[in-house]
Amino acid sequence: MQETGLSATDIAEISGVAVTLVRRLLRPAGERPAIVHRVTAEAILGIPLNSIFRRQRLLPGLVDVDRAATSLQELAERGWPTSFLAARLETTPHTLAAIRGRERRRLALALDRKIQRLAALLLASEPADHGIAEHRSRRTRTAAFRRRAALAQPTTTALREEPGQAP
What we know:
This protein is mainly α. About 55% of the residues lie in helices and about 5% in strands. It contains 9 helices and 2 strands; from the N terminus they run ααααβαααβαα. It has helices spanning about 10-15, 20-25, 40-45, 50-55, 65-75, 80-90, 95-100, 110-120, 135-150; strands spanning about 60-65, 105-110. The protein has a two-stranded antiparallel sheet. The chain is elongated, with a radius of gyration of 22 Å. Residues about 50-60 have low confidence and may be disordered.
């Protein structure tokens, strides 16, 4: 990353890791810390290459939820149950539902990448190939299409009139 022109401050800003720790990690082999926390390693190693070349300023270790939400919605429409996806992604169904429903604005870079890899793998196959019963897939597809239809309908803010009240 340094060879592409990023400074320790740039790496720290993009990854969300403290600049002091980034500087320690950039020291020669004998002088850097022997143990690096997994979260720190993922944050630094997870910096997208396009941000290195374009110097985009990202939030610390976070990305927009849109791409992951779209992938999760596509998987649901193809019949992949949220509980199956959550087990594969080592997270909870509630977390995936919040992402898919865009209740969150940002998402950890590591989880976003896991979702994208899993979506690429699963969209090339069928739920039945992975032992998912047809009735579970059908229920998931139905719920996904209802969710899409509900999002497409505009919500009204007008209050209903009570019977017997003047407009």
